Amino acid sequence: MLGIPLPPVFVSQRQDGVWDVIDGLQRLSTIFQFAGILLDNDGNKVERLKLSKAKYLPSLENKIWESKGDDKDDDCLTQQQRIDIRRSKIDVNIIQRESNKDTKYDMFERLNTGGTPLSEQEVRNCLLIMTNREFYKSFESLANNPDFQESVTLTDRAREERYDMELITRFIVLRHSEIGALAARDDVNTFITEKLVDLASGDFDFAVETARFEKTFRIINSALADNAFKKYVVEKSRYSGGFLVSVFEMIAIGLGQNVDAWADEVRAQERVKEVSKIIWHDVRFTSHQGSGVRGSSRIPHTIPLGAELFAA
């Protein structure tokens, strides 16, 4: 309405001609919702938006797209204003190499430089939706598991950036990867992203994975609740501080690699309590954890050690 062009939208074209939006989803969704044509995942229309006044167009305060029914509504845009919006042009750049997942990931990285940058996991979620929507739905459902939610103590900011799904990604990917190969990689995030998309592109049994995930976090939550992934302070004989990803790798992934062998969940709970304390006496763990240790240096040590400590 100010005559200023919108930034271009980037889409990836599938084999069937459908476009997946790579960059511009928020812009498009806002326009659709204001016009009353945005649909949710169930095909239902989302409640329409009202405009807020802006510096140069204060008269738009509380304006809606158009009146409901036959009644004239002074709070709606005029017909000419709606026509002007409909005639506005939005540049769309189409990426047609839809079979190459690396192209999509590269596009995310290149475009994710302005505004509020996406977290690594938010980028992965977009890639999963484009790669295998059903895999993504099953994957996302794990984040609602109550045992997982109660044992993983995250800040509101971390949850908003989907760090909960980042942890689920690590739980799945690092149990299905050759950990030794990670030592030669500088970028853990790229390694994890590539492996996750590979799993989503293949024949992955999510029913089996879900059962293992639920059993693992049922045991952990029953054993330690919200102390599960915190530091155990030996001198004070208590857990302290916030969530530590190194402890998560040791306990959650270590137990997850062996969980099928733990038929007695009560014994498994006792083992979780024991491991959560003894790792702080073990130089194999303490020498590879802390804020100064890179993931590519830490993970090749924590994952095998966790698997060893939870061997049934």
What is the structure about, briefly put?
The chain is mostly helical and 312 residues long. The chain contains 14 helices and 5 strands.
What does this structure look like?
- The chain has 312 residues and is mainly alpha-helical.
- The chain folds into two domains: 9-95, no CATH class; 121-309, no CATH class.
- Helix content is 49%, strand content 6%.
- The chain has helices at 25-35, 79-87, 101-111, 120-131, 133-141, 146-151, 156-160, 163-173, 188-201, 206-224, 245-258, 265-278, 283-286, 295-309; strands spanning 9-13, 19-23, 92-95, 231-233, 238-240.
- Strand 1 and strand 2 form a beta hairpin.
- The model has no long low-confidence stretch (mean pLDDT 86).
Task: Outline the fold blueprint.
Layout: E1 9-13, E2 19-23, H1 25-35, H2 79-87, E3 92-95, H3 101-111, H4 120-131, H5 133-141, H6 146-151, H7 156-160, H8 163-173, H9 188-201, H10 206-224, E4 231-233, E5 238-240, H11 245-258, H12 265-278, H13 283-286, H14 295-309
Parallel strand pairs: 1-3
Antiparallel strand pairs: 1-2, 4-5
Helix pairs in contact: 3-4, 4-5, 4-9, 8-9, 8-11, 10-11, 10-12, 11-14
